[in-house]
UniProtKB/TrEMBL annotation:
Keyword Membrane listed: yes
Top-level taxonomic group: Bacteria
UniProt key word Transmembrane helix: yes
Natural source organism: Caulobacter radicis
Protein name: DUF2339 domain-containing protein
UniProt xrefs under InterPro entries: DUF2339_TM, UCP035905_mem
């Protein structure tokens, strides 16, 4: 019983609040009138009413005395606006100033916005909460109190069930009567529309609870009576909303949607349920149209959408589809058939937002109809998607929705149809089976086109793009999925849609202001062309596809020549590229390379040549049409088709039938040469009038050849570390010339004819890489022959690679290279390359190639191995001396390294003379060998020291001194311990004599150098 007191207190609080509100309104009105009287007494000019509202005292100038308040006063002051204290106004300005002031009063255009959206302050927020917030809270309390009262009575058993239900009905009726009492109050007294509506809604909720309890809890009334009473309450609330406003209508829609659920939905027959849902939807939409209530329209659509779920769960797809269509079309009908007398922009905007939201939600809800068991993609799903596409297009055509909204039903339809095909296969429903699938996919462009013809500019482009792209994607996916599901003529949807869209493009061109620049037309034509290409791909046998796509490119180029429409030339270029792409398909290139293509070689060449010739003809037509970039792109495609045909021919001629010897390296080399030769031809015929595509075509062809060669000849098909075959022919004159040296020469010539830029530099680096690869492979093949792929790396071979590195460094450090401005960037890299070569030479000649501790020698004859090693050391020393002519630390290091290499070479010669090839078998040396080392080292050091003194070369002098001191240390530490008798004495005598003679010789050379007069300086 305490809820009775709570409800009474709530009503009493609401009444007291209304009384306080009345007092506040009267006080605000009195204050406003008082301020008006003050303003009329202080200002007598016509502008006085405007200036009287100022809260800041004006300054002497008229323009500065204008207040920041709105120019046009409101007909009635805001009930919660707080008027500031008016300051004492100054004396009125002279009457001539307002007239003569050249600065007029600012235009009142931006003022209504500030009036419509007042600044939110603490006072306004508290006022809103006092007037509206308390009303919502009070209404919620009433509704909750009514429901809890029923629940409390049921739990405690205080009253009998009939008495409990009767009490709930009486309480609900009292709430409805209270709402009528509040509504009938005088407008300027305590009338509160929101409170009245919420009170009626709370009473309705209580009545809903009573009906549900009477049927479901106590079983006092049968189903038909409970359903009738609940529907009557809902319809009664809708009728009362005409008096109470939109909040009550929202409550009524929520109750109407919940009525079947709370009254045991399984007891409703399908026909009665469908009729009830249609009745509720129609009533709500009619009410929304009559009162221009956007919230009611959206709530009705949501309620109808919720009511569509039970039929869907009961496998009544058609009934569910009808309700979803009603939920999507009802808000549109309410917007179009609204009462237009006295409407405001805000009301129309809310109706539009409700219509767009309903369309978007219906597109998502349609997926449930598509996937509903037991047969996904049923006929109801297809019809519903078509209806939603049509409704959305109609809304866009009438400017109700933006063009982007068309993407929702279009994407939903494509996604649903394709996923059903993907997961169901040939068991899919009728909506995803030909020819109904064809018709469904055609619905998107057929519904979007009439709407697009009514739009302009970007809006038309956006709608055409959505329709065209979604249709093209759908047709592309449908071909693959239908083919996997083993449907016959799976390419037919794409063909029919493509041809139809090409025909309808004339309507777009006629409507377009400038067809040559219309992006929407281009996207539409692109989608149509894509579907035609797909049909060609699915209908034509693989061996004839290149020619078929070339014919399509020619037809589109001819159309672009006759019709100045944007998109035709671009589509022709795409067709030319597809002619190249299909030649790379495994279904074409695989059998062709293996000799299994059901065509003889001349016919294969004829197909490839015909495709290239037709593509060249298409490029010529585009050039005549003034489409230079497209013509160059088409020409590049034709060139690549021709090159690919040549590749296939070369492979068939070189390799022949399967089972022959491997010619992987030779075939890759021929392909690289074809690409680089074509690129060189393009470089030679370049002109200043070439467009960007012509320039990029050259870069792409040469770049493709360079990348192909480095990847295949350099890595995959390399005869040393790759899968390539052994070169055919004698050393230096074999197929390595074709594989490496020829590409290097072609790249060098192409780089020489090209200006210095990033591409030219890349070509120079590529030429150097191919040249170095040739030198390495030639050296390897010359040493090992046919075993170059498996033989170990010997000491002489390593020394040869070091010599190659020194040769490369010598080339980079050539002064003539630095003198050329075009090659200055190479000169900047020379020091780095030089240091790398010198360090490598030190490691190789000082450590890796030493027979005493170096790696095992390759399988060569001892004499050849020794000669090769000696020649490598001599060549390395000579190259290091040549590099030593450079100044700075690099030259010093190179000359010192050369002396070291010669020192190692002399030591190895002495060792070889005593031990032969097995010089590393033992590290011990006999007495004579030890004496010979000392004598040779001393003589070598003396010669180097003499040369350094004669040439005034500090590096040579220090190198000679180091060798002599090393020799002296050896004599004292080694010879003294190992030698005996005459040999020991001879060793000391020889070394001593050499050192003494060296000292005398150096002194004499230094003296001669000092006496040499310096050349006179030119003053």
């Amino acid at each position: 019983m305490e809820w009775v007191f709570i409800v009474g207190l709530t009503v009493w609080i609401a009444v007291q609040h209304q009384s306080l509100d009345l007092v506040k309104r009267q006080l605000s009105k009195a204050l406003a009138e008082l301020e008006g009287l003050k303003a009329s007494r202080n200002w007598s000019e016509p502008s006085a009413p405007r200036e009287a509202a100022a809260s800041i005292p004006p300054k002497p100038t008229t323009s500065e005395t204008l207040p920041p308040e709105p120019i046009q006063p409101e007909p009635k002051p805001s009930p919660w606006a707080i008027e500031p204290k008016a300051a004492e106004p100054p004396h009125a300005p002279p009457p001539a100033e307002p007239v003569s002031d050249p600065r007029p009063i600012p235009a009142p255009a931006p003022r209504p916005a500030s009036v419509a959206r007042p600044i939110i302050t603490r006072e306004t927020a508290s006022t809103w909460l006092a007037e509206n917030g308390l009303a919502w809270i009070g209404g919620g309390g009433l509704a909750l109190g009514g429901l809890l009262l029923v629940a409390y009575a049921a739990q405690k058993g205080i009253f009998t069930p009939p008495l409990r239900i009767a009490a709930a009905v009486v309480l609900g009726a009292l709430m409805v009567l209270a709402s009528e009492w509040i509504l009938r109050r005088k407008a300027d007294m305590s009338r509160h529309l929101l409170a009245a509506a919420i009170a009626a809604g709370a009473g309705a909720v209580t009545l809903y609870g009573a009906v549900c309890a009477a049927h479901g809890l106590y079983h006092l009334i049968p189903f038909w009576l409970a359903a009738s009473l609940a529907a009557a309450v809902s319809l009664g609330l809708l009728a009362l909303s005409l008096r109470h406003g939109e909040p009550l209508a929202l409550v009524a829609m929520v109750g109407a949607a919940a009525t079947p659920i709370v009254t045991d939905i399984s007891s409703w027959s399908p026909v009665v349920f469908e009729a009830y849902a249609l009745l509720i939807g129609a009533t709500g939409f009619v009410l929304a149209a009559g009162r221009r209530w956007g919230g009611t329209s959206l709530a009705t659509a949501a309620g109808v959408a919720v009511l569509s779920l039970p039929p869907l769960a009961d496998r009544q797809h058609a009934a569910a589809a009808v309700l979803v269509a009603l939920a999507a079309g009802g808000p549109l009908a309410a917007l179009w058939r609204r009462r237009r007398t006295g409407e405001t922009e805000a009301e129309v905007l809310r109706l539009r937002q409700a219509a767009m939201t309903a369309l978007l939600g219906a597109a998502v809800l349609a997926l449930a109809v598509w996937y509903a068991p037991p047969s996904p993609a049923g006929a109801a799903a297809g019809v519903l998607s078509a209806v939603l596409l049509g409704l959305t297009a109609l809304a866009i055509a009438t400017r109700v929705a933006p063009p982007g909204l068309f993407a929702a039903p279009a994407i939903a339809t494509v996604f649903a149809a394709m996923t059903c095909l993907l997961f169901e296969g040939d068991d899919v429903g009728i909506a995803a089976r030909p020819p109904w699938l064809h018709l469904l996919l055609a619905t998107a462009p057929l519904t979007a086109l009439p709407a697009a013809l009514r739009l302009h500019g970007r809006q038309r482009t956006q709608l055409l793009a959505i329709a065209g792209i979604t249709t093209a994607v759908a047709a592309s996916l449908a071909w693959v999925l239908l083919d996997e599901a083993r449907f016959g003529y799976a390419w037919s949807p794409a063909a029919l849609l493509g041809v139809g869209m090409f025909g309808l493009s004339t309507l777009i061109a006629r409507r377009s202001e400038e067809p040559s620049r219309d992006l929407g037309l281009a996207l539409w034509l692109g989608a149509a062309a894509e579907m035609v290409f797909l049909a060609v791909h699915g209908a034509v046998q693989p061996r004839f596809e290149p020619a078929a796509f070339a014919v399509a490119a020619l037809a589109l180029a001819f159309a672009a020549r006759r019709l100045p429409w944007r998109g035709l030339a671009e589509a022709s270029v795409v067709a030319g590229l597809l002619a190249l792409v299909v030649m790379l398909r495994p279904a074409f290139i695989g059998p062709a390379l293996e000799g299994r293509l059901p065509l003889p070689l001349p016919l294969v060449a004829a197909v490839s040549g015909a495709a290239a010739a037709i593509a060249f003809a298409a490029a010529w037509l585009l050039k005549i049409a003034g489409r230079r970039n497209e013509a160059e792109a088409q020409g590049a495609s034709a060139l690549m088709v021709l090159l690919l045909g040549l590749f296939i021919g070369v492979h068939v001629v070189v390799v022949g039938k399967p089972g022959g010897a491997s010619t992987f390296l030779l075939e890759a080399s021929l392909r690289t040469l074809i690409l680089l030769a074509a690129g060189l031809v393009l470089v030679l015929r370049q002109g200043p009038v070439d467009g960007p595509l012509a320039r990029w075509r050259t870069l792409l062809v040469v770049g493709a050849g360079l990348a192909h060669g480095l990847l295949l000849q350099g890595l995959v098909a390399n005869p040393w570390w790759g899968m390539g075959e052994v070169p055919a022919g004698p050393p230096l004159f074999n197929t390595l010339l074709l594989s490496y040296l020829a590409p290097a020469l072609l790249l060098a010539v192409a780089a020489r004819r090209r200006p210095v830029d990033a591409a030219g530099r890349g070509w120079v680096v590529g030429a150097a890489a191919f040249g170095l690869l040739w030198a390495v492979m030639a050296l390897r093949h010359g040493i090992h022959g046919g075993a170059m792929g498996v033989a170990a790396i010997g000491r002489g071979e390593i020394a040869g690679y070091a010599v190659l590195a020194l040769v490369a460094a010598r080339g980079f450090l050539d002064p003539r290279l630095a003198a050329r401005p075009a090659a200055s960037w190479l000169a900047r890299a020379a020091p780095t390359i030089g240091w790398i070569a010198v360090v490598l030479a030190i490691l190789v000649f000082g450590l890796l190639t030493n027979p005493w501790w170096g790696p095992e020698q390759a399988r060569l004859s001892p004499l050849i191995a020794a000669l090769l090693l000696a020649l490598a050391h001599g060549a390395g020393a000579a190259l290091l001396l040549e590099l030593g002519r450079q100044g700075g630390p690099f030259g010093t290091t190179a000359r010192a390294s050369a002396i070291g290499v010669l020192f190692v070479l002399l030591s190895l010669i002495v060792r070889y003379g005593f031990h032969g090839p097995a010089m590393g078998a033992s590290i011990d040396a006999g007495g004579l060998e030890t004496w010979t080392f000392s004598a040779v080292w001393a003589a070598f050091g003396l010669v180097v020291l003499s040369l350094g003194s004669a040439r005034k070369d500090a590096v040579l002098r220090w190198a000679g001194l180091v060798v002599l001191l090393l020799t002296a240390a050896k004599v004292l530490l080694v010879d003294l311990a190992r030698l005996e008798g005459v040999v020991r004495a001879a060793s000391f005598l020889a070394v001593g004599a050499l050192l003494l003679g060296g000292a005398v010789l150096v002194r004499r050379l230094n003296a001669r150098t000092a006496k040499t007069p310096e050349p006179p300086t030119a003053d």
